[in-house]
Amino acid sequence: MKAVGVVVEYNPFHNGHYHHIEQAKKVTNADVVIAVMSGHFLQRGEPALIDKWHRAKMALQNGVDLVIELPYIFSTGQATHFAKGAIELLAAVHCESFAFGSEQGNIEPFLNTQSLLNDYRDEYNNLIKYFVSTGISYPQALHAAYEQLKLKRPQNYIDLGMPNNILGFHYIEAAYRLKHKIMPVTIKRIQAGFHDDINSQLTIASATGIRKELFDRESLHHISQYVPASSYAQLEAWILNYQCFIQWETFWPLLQFSIIRNTPEELTRFADVSEGIEFALVKHGKNSDSFAQFMSLIKSKRYTWTRLQRMLTHIYTGITKEQLHAFTSPTYIRLLGMSSNGQAYLSANKKNFELPLISRVASTKDPMLALDIHASDMYSLGVQLASNKKIEGDYNTPPIRI
Asked: Which pLDDT tens digit goes with each residue over 44-102?
């Protein structure tokens, strides 16, 4: 059986994701779709809208055959680390290809860009240092350096100012550096951009737009045209059980406690907390009544919203710099769910997987997995604060079968 891999968050699964899955199978002629999906905390440093079990069900009900969890260490990492963990897992389960959505929609410019930055790495790094010295943020310096490097060597390159292009590039870079034979394929995003609000004239909206609509209107009805019926049912089941969708605002009392219980010096122990920000975190953490107010006070030219959220994620979950840097590669394949087709693929291939397959966590002692379980417990605590109900824990939930 031929497998294509996808790297996903499904926060939530919508019609654009369904299009991506269908096109990935069509372009690669794959028999099986394997999704590496982030758990309860995501790449932009925020808690997931709903838990990983509901999101895995959405995937399995809409064309995905296996859902594997991307460990916390990678799911909350910067793009390079996020991509490395995901591609290593897809290679470990013997995917012949991986398909990612992009604004570009054509693989050749990605390959050209990868060659450019690989062949002229020293020059690129020197340009980054120069632009950082001018006072702009690091992401802006990366973009400026890339634009200048392109001018000297005209070819068809990707626009690295577009969020899906950026992640796609890092997937390809990860596969190249890891020397995997896994083949990259890109599917063009249609109708809605990454950050676009919903448009009532369309049937595809960005996950960002859908979440905004859910939080602003506090109603499911307005997003029904943008998600498959099965996704709508999972969202409906969640809201009936837990009363609200999850965002940092939901967790604010717990996050606030996590910040102000530490001294500024103690905060610097946590992953991604850079020196200098710790005093502002404590000062404004004490005096803010909401997450939105807190972010407005600590946001600056130096610290992007995403960078701050990642810091706060690690402070909330208690993950230190030492813990984060202790792991460079996934050490297991954590199975969240499977279709009958996915189960057949596992039966035929799991003996040859590059990493151990974990279906039940109780019998496994792995320090990386322990961090995943801890992160799930912290997510559950926030959900319980908001709804007075616990979500099912990792020890009590077997892989979903569809």
From this structure: 999 999 999 999 999 999 999 999 999 999 999 999 999 999 999 999 999 999 999 99
Dist CA 250 CA 175 (whole Å): 37
> 242: annotated binding-site residue?
no
DSSP 32-75: EEEEEEE-SB-TTS-B-SS-HHHHHHHHHTTT--EEEEEPHHHH
Classify 209 as helix, strand or coil.
helix
Q: Which residues contact 28 (CB under 8 A, 6 or more apart)?
A: 2, 4, 96, 97, 99, 183, 185
- Residue 22 is which amino acid? E
Q: Is 10 within any annotated ligand binding site?
A: yes
Q: What is the pLDDT of residue 98?
A: 97
Say whether 189 counts as a known binding-site residue.
yes
Least confident of 57-66, 157-166, 322-331: 157-166
Taking the complete model, does pTM exceed 0.85, yes or no? yes
Condensed to tens digits (0 to 9), the pLDDT of residues 201-220 reads 788 999 999 999 999 887 79
314 is in an annotated binding site: no
401 has binding-site annotation? no
Distances in whole angstroms, Cα of residue 214 to Cα of each of 15, 29, 217, 224, 296: 16, 36, 6, 11, 22
Neighbour-count burial for 5-38, b at 16+ CB within 10 Å, e otherwise: bbbbbbbbbbbbbbbbbebbbeebebebbbbbbb
Asked if residue 12 belongs to a known ligand binding site, the reply is: yes
What gap in Å lies between CA 195 and CA 168, rounded to an integer? Answer: 17
332 closest CA partner among 46, 83, 76, 85: 85
**3-class DSSP assignment, residue 333:** strand
Is 15 a known ligand-binding residue? yes
Residue 289 is classified by DSSP as: S
Tell me if 14 is assigned to a ligand binding site. yes
